[in-house]
Write a structure and sequence with these properties.
heterodimer; A: alpha+beta; Alpha-Beta Plaits; eight-stranded antiparallel beta sheet; three-stranded mixed beta sheet; globular; B: 2 domains
């Protein structure tokens, strides 16, 4: 207790720093918040699909105009496996005794998935944890904000995830997203779900499109809309030479592109 | 009449009154705190005590560290490569037994070096065609940049620990381990220093300005440059 107190007194609040990083104002509403001159709305993900692809999280983290936070809290493997094993038994029982085919198939599926995770955790020593995703579209003007909100909702719908606006919990939601707060318990209680670590890692949340050498020639955009800026004369690493292949169906402008590149070079 | 009865009555009344007063006071206190919570300023909401070196100290007694993960492109990886990378990274990260938070924020792409290179090229050439092409290029690029569509995503992992004596060393060790785990899998990353942490906070709090403002935060007193000089 004494050490805690002295530690706190040692570090005074740096007012100049605070002024530099504080938004101009903060207004909390029921379904959104205003941070400085921007509007924002915090959503939480409350349901995930049974199966996801590699790179599923990269589609969430690459939504333009949003801030995303994903927190991962490892949990005790032992008790998790026990409860998983119990649920597998229960599901198997349901599958055998159920009369209608829908319940039977669902229970079978749940039992199989449970078994698979159990093997992953028990035999490969994989960590399981509580994952919570919060996302906040941010935009300066209202129409753009509505657009980003819709885009966010549709992206999650495409991934078969369900998101909910964290009504009345915008302050806590913003805390969950901020780099200067640890996780927020109140929010986590609502949005945390059990997930193996490999699902988080295989979602490649840190993958992004686009490429920028800092100098060179602006080539265009890739399939997901990232800018491609390449310096063809940059050397280093595995780049020892530059070759280009230009492909496309007749009439899309291959020759024009080649002329363009040649002129710029 | 028994003299004890009035004494007992008085004592009971006093006790009751005291209890009531105490209760009133408690009620006032709680209503006061909830009132101040309503009127909390943005400055108080920002939970930062100070940022020193690579650590951020919060008001709720925590120390935080940040790692920036440079994005990788997975579009060009085959299914097999993705699988191998996932397995490798999962095995590495399984050793991390404490909670962490992953943040993804947008940051406008810095196209200023490109624009300055183009303008240099334009000044040095006399070829009309090339000039026209360069002008067009610059026009398109600045249009992109101004539209706000051209942003790159930046990814951070933050870890934290309760603030105690000597916890910085422990946290720093954990942070280094975590970043070396990512680097071991071919994902470049770096631990943020003071300026980068300020920039990250601004990316969330003041996104419009973070790419043009510098990150110095020391208060400065502006003085007229030549006021006190002799000439």
């Amino acid at each position: 207790m004494i050490t805690k107190k002295t530690r706190l007194e040692e570090i005074p609040v740096n007012a100049a720093l605070l002024n530099a990083i504080t938004p101009m104002g903060l207004e909390l509403k029921r379904n959104g918040l205003v941070i400085g001159e921007n509007s924002g709305r915090v959503y939480g993900v409350v349901k995930y699909p049974q199966k996801v692809d590699y790179g599923w999280l990269s589609r969430i983290t690459n939504l333009p105009g949003t801030i995303v936070s994903i927190s991962f809290k490892p949990i005790d493997n032992g008790s998790f496996i026990e409860s998983l094993s119990r649920s597998v038994i229960q599901n198997r029982g349901t599958a055998e005794s159920a009369r209608d085919p829908l319940t039977q198939k669902r229970a079978e599926r749940a039992a199989l998935d449970g078994e698979r995770i159990m093997v992953q955790v028990d035999q490969h020593g994989e960590t399981v944890g509580l994952l919570s995703i919060a996302i906040m579209p941010v935009s300066r003007d209202d129409s753009a904000f509505q657009k980003v909100c819709r885009k966010t909702e549709s992206t999650f719908a495409m991934l078969k995830c369900k998101i909910r606006n964290l009504s009345n919990l915008q302050r806590e939601g913003f805390k969950q997203l901020s780099p200067f707060y640890a996780t927020n318990e109140q929010i986590e209680e609502i949005i945390q779900r059990i997930m193996p670590l490999s699902t988080f890692v295989g979602g490649f949340p840190f993958a992004s499109s686009g490429y920028n050498d800092g100098t060179g020639y602006y080539f265009g955009r890739d399939a997901s809309g990232g800018l491609i800026i390449i310096d063809t004369w940059k050397r280093g690493g595995d780049r020892t030479n530059t070759n280009m292949v230009i492909m496309g169906v007749a009439g899309v402008g291959k020759s024009t592109a080649v002329k363009h590149i040649a002129r710029n070079a | 009449m028994n003299p004890i009865i009035p004494i007992v009555t008085i004592i009971i009344t006093l006790l009751g009154g005291g209890g009531f007063l105490f209760y009133m006071k408690m009620g006032k206190k709680t209503s006061k705190t909830s009132d101040s919570k309503e009127q909390q300023t943005a400055n108080e909401f920002v939970n930062v005590r100070d940022i020193r070196d690579r650590y951020l100290y919060t008001r709720d007694n925590k120390v935080m560290m940040y790692i920036k993960i440079n994005p990788i492109a997975i579009d060009l990886l085959s299914e097999r490569e993705k699988k191998i990378l996932t397995k490798q990274l999962t095995a590495e990260l399984s050793a991390e037994q404490k909670p962490f938070k992953f943040l993804a924020v947008s940051r406008p792409v810095d196209i200023s070096p490109l624009i300055s290179e183009y303008s240099q090229l334009m000044a040095g050439t006399s070829n009309q065609k090339q000039k026209e092409l360069l002008r067009n290029e610059m026009f398109v690029m600045s249009n992109y940049a101004l539209s706000g569509d051209v942003v790159e995503r930046q990814f951070y992992i933050m870890i934290w620990e309760r603030c105690e004596e000597g916890i910085e060393r422990e946290l720093s060790k954990r942070c280094c381990e975590l970043s070396s785990r990512f680097e071991g899998c071919g994902i470049p990353c770096e631990i943020l220093n003071q300026q980068d942490i300020v920039r990250l906070c601004n990316l969330v709090n003041n996104p419009a300005y973070s790419h043009i403002e510098d990150t110095g935060f020391d208060a400065a007193i502006p003085l007229l440059a030549n006021l006190n000089s002799e000439d």
